[in-house]
Design goal:
Helix content is about 35%, strand content about 15%. It has helices at about 15-30, 55-65, 80-95, and strands at about 10, 30-35, 70-75, 100. It starts with 7 loop residues before the first strand and ends in a 16-residue tail after the last strand. The structure holds nicotinamide-adenine-dinucleotide. Nicotinamide-adenine-dinucleotide binds near residues 39, 51, 78, 104 and 106.
């Protein structure tokens, strides 16, 4: 018995880092995962390497290896229509949505009012 048996969790930024760990942990606790990631460089202003398609695929592999179900799609969280389409697809497939983990994000040191979208 997992703590999230039968639950459905939507997670943004699943390709690596904390998002990958959230996906894996929820899957191990019995949840089905709806996940998105942009899986390419997001910004010219970050000073670190950004997530890739290989990272994205590895998260899917790890979740499935753990016995979890996952609908993973490449999408940008700044694109509301794309996010809605993924959530709609996931809810259609899994029948419900219980938890949202708004994890995707980047770290930059620019002034907020000078940052582009
Ligand atoms: N690691 C830390 O110490 C720390 C501290 C404070 C806050 N955070 C926040 O926690 C979250 C996760 O951090 P992390 O260390 O795992 O970062 P990470 O860079 O390893 O992972 C973030 C993921 O979000 C994805 N992402 C970024 N912008 C996106 C977009 N527009 N659309 C879709 N996907 C997008 C990236 O591709 C990446 O896979 C981030 O929001 C980060 O800002 C992290």
């Amino acid at each position: 018995m997992g703590e999230f048996d039968g639950k459905v969790v939507f997670i943004t930024g699943i390709a690596r880092g904390q998002g990958r760990n959230h996906a894996l942990r929820f899957a191990r606790e019995g949840a089905s995962i709806i996940g998105v990631d942009i899986a390419r460089p997001v910004s010219d202003y970050t000073t670190y390497t950004q997530a890739t398609g290989e990272d994205f695929d590895e998260t899917v592999r790890l979740v499935e290896e753990a016995g979890g179900k996952i609908i993973a799609r490449v999408a940008d969280v700044r694109d509301s229509a794309a996010l809605k389409a993924v959530v709609d697809e996931g809810v259609h497939q899994f029948g419900r949505l219980d938890v949202v983990v708004a994890n995707a994000g980047i770290c930059t040191w620019n002034r907020f009012w000078e940052m582009p979208d």
